[in-house]
């Protein structure tokens, strides 16, 4: 295996990586910056970079006009709720697939993943009608169900790849030791899979937190999370870039902080166990 | 008590008949070793007894009760895995205690049993460690500790020593034999290793392609193998098989003669041969020779032999040690 890098190659790769990183980061940086500007400065051309009158006005006004904490609370409930419900189903499903595979297990996994390739808007009408008829519109329960089902394939996949790495012998040893199936899963499998479960949960919290299509379409106020909070600042009242930026910053801040502190688990999770 | 009886036990994976039908009797307190070539179904048979695989057909009787459809835990057996299969997130203490906890034993009982097992296995100083911080031999002892605290009707071992280095293997072999003498519990032991099989077993079961070829005491298998397969499998180096005129002289299709039952001489003997390779081990010498008109043979001579490549020698089989086989490979008994 040739794995040596010339210094020049190494440097150019680093520079390239940094450029890509900065490109991705720039909009977020600009959003945060804009949230501290006045509306006037926010749209001034040429844009001012650091030398403007820093103000917290936007944040005050955003909180005053719409209750940030109510939206944030909904976001937390939806993200955590859908992840916990998903975990119960995904753990049992992944256990079956990883430790009792059949000829069709791989097909089933692929089929599950393929559902993620369908554009959500394709099922908007039926789901909307079901929600309307069952009185689930604008309820947290309804949204938790949708978000959980939406992310279930990914949770199963991730847990499956983690479980695959656990030697079956150990579970069999537990069986010989007299553990019933629930005990085998709770006392033996789950503790060994903690890193995998942590990254699975984390990724799903983030996916559910960022989910905008269903949360915007199926809620109005009671169950509306931060995505709706941001959306409410976009068009109808003219363009308020600074306030929109402040709202967005508030919406992404919590998840950004969580993401920052759990980078390692996230990276492991996102590689889907592809690299050992 | 731990008498185990298999009646027409069958196992198929899909269309693959791994165990076409095995009958076997294991007496209480016996040390039984399963040997056979790789892939012959030793592990599968053990796992069927353990209950980790479901039988396709047949009965597994433990002390007279058919347990073929019982869960593993209900059978009262303990298993020691080749990979040790310790719970990596638990301390040694909790590893050993796990089965007792699952059985709902009280804290005091658990503690007393774990401590006494740890004492037998020299693990007292390691009870607070995780398996990751133990050597291979210590891990193996924890696995055995986990098996003995449950006071099983029988122990099942699947190649428990194959991950250990040679010196440790000898030690653990003696320890397991010692344990068997002390506990007098039935043990079923799967191995590849001739020496383990010969030294540990009360009874050896030789398997091939899921079939029992022969069951018997180690020396019975060595002295009177029932067929060519067992003859070739038991004993190392392998038995020499010779056909042709020599076999005809003994009224059979083929004769078998073990490398240690050939006397070597430089001037006269029954079979003329040329040395190809001589392996000098000190206490003995293995000669790989080309016998005139008979093909390659192996000779095991005691002591040092000043022989090397191209040397001409003569071999004489010990007459009462010749095994005779018919065209189907079945042993014919002495001529
Ligand atoms: N779950 C399974 N599905 C399909 N075939 C299997 C399964 N388990 C074992 N086999 C097959 O059954 C046969 C016997 O396997 P087994 O593991 O019992 O052999 P073994 O005698 O223990 O071999 P080794 O000495 O290499 O451990 C093999 O051909 C194996 O491929
Ligand atoms: Mg095996």
How is this fold's topology laid out?
The complex is a heterodimer of chains A (276) and B (335).
Chain A: H1 7-34, H2 39-42, H3 57-65, H4 68-99, H5 105-114, H6 124-133, H7 140-164, H8 168-176, H9 181-192, H10 194-210, H11 213-218, H12 226-231, H13 241-261, H14 263-270
Chain B: E1 4-13, E2 16-26, E3 31-35, H1 42-50, E4 57-62, E5 65-66, E6 77-80, H2 92-102, H3 107-120, H4 136-148, E7 154-158, H5 166-183, E8 186-190, H6 194-200, E9 203-208, E10 211-216, H7 218-223, H8 228-233, E11 240-242, H9 244-249, E12 254-257, E13 262-265, E14 271-280, E15 284-291, E16 295-302, E17 312-317, E18 323-325
Parallel strand pairs in B: 3-8, 3-9, 6-7, 7-8
Antiparallel strand pairs in B: 1-2, 1-4, 4-5, 9-10, 11-12, 12-18, 13-17, 14-15, 14-17, 15-16
GO molecular function (chain B): ABC-type maltose transporter activity; ATP binding; ATP hydrolysis activity
Domain ABC transporter (chain B): 4-234
Family (chain B): Belongs to the ABC transporter superfamily.
Features:
heterodimer; A: 276 residues; mainly alpha; MetI-like fold; 2 domains; 71% helix; globular; B: 335 residues; alpha+beta; Rossmann fold; OB fold (Dihydrolipoamide Acetyltransferase, E2P); 6-stranded mixed beta sheet; 5-stranded antiparallel beta sheet; 9 helices; 18 strands; binds adenosine-5'-triphosphate; binds magnesium ion
């Amino acid at each position: 295996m040739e794995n040596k890098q010339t210094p020049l190659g190494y440097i150019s790769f680093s520079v390239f990586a940094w450029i890509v990183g900065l490109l991705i980061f720039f909009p977020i940086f600009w959003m945060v910056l804009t949230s501290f500007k006045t509306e006037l400065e926010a749209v001034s051309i040429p844009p001012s970079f650091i030398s403007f009158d820093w103000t917290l006005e936007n944040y005050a006004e955003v909180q005053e006009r719409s209750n940030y904490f109510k939206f944030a609370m909904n976001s937390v409930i939806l993200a955590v709720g859908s992840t916990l419900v998903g975990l119960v189903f995904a753990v049992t499903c992944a256990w079956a697939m990883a430790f009792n595979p059949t000829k069709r297990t791989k097909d089933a996994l692929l089929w599950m993943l393929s559902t993620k390739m369908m554009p959500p808007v394709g099922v908007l009408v039926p789901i909307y009608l079901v929600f309307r008829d069952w009185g689930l519109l604008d309820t947290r329960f309804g949204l938790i169900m949708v978000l959980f089902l939406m992310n279930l394939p990914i949770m199963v996949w991730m847990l499956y790849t983690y479980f695959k790495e656990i030697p079956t012998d150990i579970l069999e040893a537990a069986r010989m030791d007299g553990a019933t199936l629930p005990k085998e899963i709770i006392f033996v499998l789950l503790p060994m899979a903690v890193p995998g479960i942590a990254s699975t949960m984390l990724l799903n919290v983030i996916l559910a937190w960022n989910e905008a299509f269903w949360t915007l379409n199926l809620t109005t106020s009671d169950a509306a999370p931060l995505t709706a909070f941001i959306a409410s600042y976009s068009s109808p009242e003219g363009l308020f870039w600074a306030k929109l930026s402040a709202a967005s910053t508030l919406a992404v801040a919590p998840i950004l902080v969580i993401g920052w502190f759990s980078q390692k688990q996230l990276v492991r999770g996102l590689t889907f166990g592809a690299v050992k | 008590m731990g008498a185990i009886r298999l009646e027409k036990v069958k196992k198929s994976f899909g269309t693959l008949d791994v165990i076409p039908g095995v009958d076997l009797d294991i007496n209480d307190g016996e040390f039984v070793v399963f040997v056979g070539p790789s892939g012959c179904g030793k592990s599968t048979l053990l796992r069927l007894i353990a209950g980790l695989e479901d039988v396709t057909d047949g009965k597994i009787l433990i002390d007279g009760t058919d347990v073929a459809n019982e869960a593993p835990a209900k059978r009262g057996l303990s298993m020691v895995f080749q990979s040790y299969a310790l719970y990596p997130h638990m301390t040694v203490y909790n590893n050993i205690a796990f089965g007792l906890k699952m059985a709902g034993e009280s804290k005091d009982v658990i503690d007393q049993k774990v401590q006494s097992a740890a004492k037998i296995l020299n693990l007292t100083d390691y009870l607070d460690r995780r398996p990751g911080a133990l050597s291979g031999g210590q891990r193996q002892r924890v696995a055995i500790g986990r098996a003995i605290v449950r006071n099983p009707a029988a122990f099942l071992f699947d190649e428990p020593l194959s991950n250990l280095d040679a010196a440790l293997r000898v030690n653990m072999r003696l320890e397991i034999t010692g344990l068997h003498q002390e506990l007098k519990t039935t043990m079923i032991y799967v191995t590849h290793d001739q020496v383990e099989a010969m030294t540990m077993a009360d009874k050896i079961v030789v398997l091939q392609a899921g079939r029992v070829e022969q069951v018997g005491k180690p020396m019975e298998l060595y002295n009177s193998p029932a067929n060519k397969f067992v003859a070739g499998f038991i004993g190392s180096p392998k038995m020499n098989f010779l056909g042709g005129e020599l076999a005809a002289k003994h009224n059979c299709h083929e004769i078998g003669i073990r490398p240690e039952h050939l006397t070597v001489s430089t001037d006269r003997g029954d079979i003329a041969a040329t040395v190809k390779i001589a392996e000098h081990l000190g206490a003995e010498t293995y000669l790989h020779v080309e016998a005139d008109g008979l093909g390659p043979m192996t000779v095991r001579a005691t002591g040092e032999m000043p022989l090397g490549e191209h040397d001409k020698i003569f071999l004489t089989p010990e007459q009462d040690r010749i095994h005779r086989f018919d065209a189907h490979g079945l042993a014919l008994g002495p001529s």
